[in-house]
Amino acid sequence: MPGKDYASTRYSGLNQITTANAARLRAAWSFSTGVLGGHEGQPLVVGNTMFVVTPFPNVLYAFDLTQEGYPLKWKYRPDVNPSAIGIACCDAINRGAVYAAGKVVYNLLDGHTVAVDARTGRELWKTQIGSLGQGETTPMAPFIVGNRVIVGPSGGEFGIHGWVKALDLATGRILWTAHNMGPDSQMIARPGTFTGGANLGVSTWSGDAWRRGGAPVWGWISYDPQLDLIYFGTGNPGPYNPEQRPGENKWTNSVLARRPGDGSLVWAYQFTPHDSWDYDSNAEMILVDLVVGGRMRRVLVHFDKNGFAYTIDRATGELLLAEPFAHVTWARRIDRTTGVPVVDSRKVTGASRGNIQGICPSLEGGKTPVAPGAYSPRTGWFYTATNNLCMSFDATTVTRIPGTPFIGASTPYVAGPGGHMGGFIAWDAARGRKVWEIKEKFPVWSGTVVTAGDVVFYGTLDGWFKAVDARNGRPLWKFKVGSGVVGAPITFRGPDGKQYVAVYAGIGGDWFLLAGDVRSDDPADVRPPSDFAPDLGRYTSQGGMVWIFGL
Amino acid sequence: MVLALALACERGGSEQLPPSVRYPDHVSAGGSPPPAREVENPIASDSASASHGAQIYASMNCDGCHGAGATGWVGPSLVDGRWRYGGTDGAVFQSIFYGRPRGMPAYGGVMSPGAIWTVIVYIRAQPVPSVVPTQRWTGSETPPRP
């Protein structure tokens, strides 16, 4: 599955590659996907086959790892509506496939989920789950629990009415749909099951603003089999101008815990009420058991775009810890008793408030949800990419025209304190503190994997793929992969018994971040570099490569 | 905003729709359109129209894809002097009215022809950078703005 296990730890027990020998890593294989664009997500290795999903047009490749050169077993080329490209807020990306019961299941950008026979590549079913006309696209990686395929849409910049759906793994039939706001009936929030209060999905909004209030589900999903709960984050409220949606806007920017069987909501917690800064909460929820405050707790750890790292009791939703992992100016702290941020009122945005300066983090987040972190039970620490950007925020009133952007803000960036724009950190979630940090010149948009060899892998926007020591961040090895890394590395044991590491190279995923000067494929679209990262184009342009490294 | 929307929807009637863009299924073999008189923008290229066009550009959410100042975001820059589907006023009108593959929605029926022409005046009023084709870096950390 995309996050390695139900708990989304991205931890591998493989230990052939160690801190002692990682310096000898070398490229073992590479493959051009034939697509230029943001290669988010991760390859999927099942048995002796590696599956790769490309950005639009969402080609699915199946590589035979038993043969020299890893030739294709098959490739599946779906018919994807190209108009989806104009509905996708942030490049025509895809975050990967999931495998279960002989099927490879993934989302097409144009609002469809497909299941493909893992052995033959034959399409088994295809279900429409989203509406392009309403601004919904579907780049997230589905998640499978039992016979339920859980999916959600993007569209926080298009005024969607966010949801999750469960499809029948065998047939693709939609079994339930649960909205993230609206009446309890649409939210599947039942008295006795959900104890948070009645109709909060309506009462925390003004009028019917919830109908176009966003709350997309484009990130990662986790599952606790003992509690029988899935956990996922929701994205920003729409539009960005908060004056058009008075209220707390539940459940945007939240984590929701639902029963996978019938979708019922059990608990929810909102990280950033009445969001004023586009602080989506779609980043992964990593499930571990930790001693917090002297007690063993079943927790969920989440690095939010708002710059705080949260440790939450995953049975109840109780907030245990929330400490900043990035430079934060929008709030002074999170009140641990109420769970509510203590907001700096000078940083609140709105069309009537003019251009608000010095907001940190930027709307790219203290960490981008695109880049899932990892947890090592050997160190007890979490590992994640970070951004060090601040922004000004000039909100404007905007009108929703279905299928067109519903944003209403101009938000230029500058580098945060220190001048570096990103980093990679180890985090102690039991104490809420940073253990070590590697500073990077550019924002870091790579996921990560950590291994039993105590090696952590991540990539950078300027195209380096790196291995570092999980215990202290010491650099062990790096390789220039040809384009910026926005995907998540994986590690696997090949048919030859050896440990390998795979990662995509292909910058993209957010044109707010990239300005467009990293493109070279369109003579009719030539742009100057972005103000805040004027030399990124010196180190990378678009790409689309799959790399495998080994000893 | 409400005013801008009202103006966008009301200004100009269907009689202003030029003949060359009435039909959605034009075929231009080899990229060469049939010989015809070039359509002219009926809206005056003055600062008042450009300012009005800027309002419509924002209220129709054009900035959500093409960026503030039309400098490009997920959609291409409209102020780099380069055009995928032709840069004449008539060609730009057609791109807006009928949309284009790979993401540009059709705004015909959402915006009046007059509003489309006014947005074109706004786009034309934006400066085109003098040094676009070459991006040059020197030294180890030199900001390279052309």
Largest interface: A-B, 39 and 38 residues
Strand runs of chain B, count: 0
- Please write the CATH class name of chain A: Mainly Beta
CATH topology heading of chain A: Methanol Dehydrogenase, Chain A
The chain-level mean pLDDT of chain A equals: 96
| Helical run tally of chain B | 5
**Percentage beta strand of chain A:** 35-45%
Biggest sheet layout of chain A: 5 strands, mixed
The top level CATH class name of the domain at 1-8 and 45-129 in chain B: Mainly Alpha
CATH evolutionary superfamily of chain A:
Quinoprotein alcohol dehydrogenase-like superfamily
How many domain units of chain A?
1
The percentage helix of chain A is: under 10%
CATH architecture of the domain at 1-8 and 45-129 in chain B: Orthogonal Bundle
- Low confidence ranges of chain B: 1-15, 19-25, 142-146
- The string of secondary-structure elements of chain B, in order, is HHHHH
Description:
The complex is a heterodimer of chains A (551) and B (146). Chain A has one domain (11-550): Methanol Dehydrogenase, Chain A (8 Propeller). Chain A contains three helices and 39 strands. Chain A has 551 residues and is mainly beta. The longest helix of chain A is centred in the middle third of the chain and has 4 residues, at 184-187. The model of chain A has no long low-confidence stretch (mean pLDDT 96). The two termini of chain A are 25 Å apart. Chain B has 146 residues and is mainly alpha-helical. Chain B has five helices and no strands. Chain B has helices spanning 2-10, 47-59, 63-66, 89-98, 113-124. In chain B, helix 1 (2-10) packs across helix 2 (47-59), helix 2 crosses helix 5 (113-124) and helix 4 (89-98) crosses helix 5. The termini of chain B are far apart. In chain B, 37% of the residues are buried.
